[in-house]
Amino acid sequence: MFSSSQFEPNSAFSGGGFMSSQAYESSSSTAKNREFQGLVPVTVKQITECFQSGGEKSGLVINGISLTNVSLVGLVCDKDDSKVTEVRFTLDDGTGRIDCKRWVNETFDAREMESVRDGTYVRLNGHLKTFQGKTQLLVFSVRPIMDFNEVTFHYIECIHFYSQNSESKGQQAGDVTQSVNTTFQGGSNTNQAVPLNPVVSSQNDGNGRKNLDDMILDYLKQPACTARQQGIHIDEIAQQLKIPKNKLEGVIQSLEGDGLIYSTIDEYHFKHVEL
Amino acid sequence: MDTTSPAVFVNGALLRRYIGQKVRAVIQVIRSEIGSVVGKSTDDQQIVVKGSPQPPLTSYLEVIGIAESDNTIRAEVWTNFGDSFDAQNYNELCKLANGEFRHLFI
């Protein structure tokens, strides 16, 4: 999903100059920072807020992720379809208003826009653009909402996306980014220094939440464990920490990739790396 | 909508915090009278919504308007939210939108 060819030139520059300081906070998420092609659910407030802090040149950055494509839910207002090829309207999602534009080139697009009236709740997917200081949404998909649980869902998704990204600024919680981390490790040596950053920031993570990595490391650091030559079996770790083994496996792999633990007599026994 | 100010997600309990301000709430219609609709908020409190919505009304209505008292809203916008709506979900959203994640909304 994240092509490494896109990645390497940036790391060769050490992320300096081109990318903002967010590059240092998270190495494997720089792939995410650069071009997050996914669709991010946001509220209009999030858009207007981040634009004010970022400025046009940096592009729109929300929670350290450079966004282009967003998904919104709200009420359509001021629909203006006087022009044949273009439909403009304002979307009001209760947190703010944003101008939207939809190019209508095919009959499919025209039909889609016909069902959208003032006062209709719609789900919009579009591309954020700033033009002459104003943020605009170039919409590529509009769908009227049929089941209004979607409205509730959208806002909850915004909250979820936001909290997922702000609590894991340096250390990624998601499996996708963990796998990016490990494949990246296999890359060129110039990248060696960079991956250590997420490790450092996660250890310094002051929010008090004991994440899985810390729990495993703490367990393995105990003198009783370090004394054991053959290391600790993953089953024992699962038993002692009372965490299912499948949850541990991914985390152990990334800890191993980061050089914090190593496997001993076989691939199921691990010991903490003593520096 | 004539006002551009953001509308806070409220349920019955949160309504009193925003008297005089623009709020949005989903209510389950109990009965509709002339000039107002009596409904139940997502946390089971009785709310009176002043205004005349366009019939037909579905079981759930979203109203956006100004909070007049701790159990009255003067609605400006009415939206039919259908007959199957998860009020509990919405209630939890109200709590989150007024709590930890306020800054995403207001």
From TrEMBL, chain A:
Region (Disordered): 187-207
Chief place of localization: nucleus
A Pfam family reported for this protein in Swiss-Prot or TrEMBL: tRNA_anti-codon
Keywords linked to the UniProt accession: DNA damage, DNA recombination, DNA repair, DNA-binding, Nucleus
Domain named OB: residues: 70-145
Cell compartments where the protein resides: Nucleus
Gene3D superfamilies according to UniProt: Nucleic acid-binding proteins, Winged helix-like DNA-binding domain superfamily/Winged helix DNA-binding domain
Residue intervals of the Replication protein A C-terminal domain: 160-267
Compositionally biased spans, kind Polar residues: 187-206
Family classification: Belongs to the replication factor A protein 2 family.
Name recorded for this polypeptide: Replication protein A 32 kDa subunit A-like
Protein source organism: Camelina sativa (False flax)
From TrEMBL, chain B:
Location(s), subcellular: Nucleus
Protein's UniProt keywords contain Nucleus: yes
InterPro entries, per the entry: NA-bd_OB-fold, Rfa2
Keywords from the UniProt entry: Nucleus
SUPFAM superfamilies: Nucleic acid-binding proteins (SSF50249)
Superkingdom field: Eukaryota
Tagged with keyword Flavoprotein: no
Family per similarity comment: Belongs to the replication factor A protein 3 family.
Name used for this protein in its record: Replication protein A 14 kDa subunit B
Gene that encodes the chain: LOC104723203
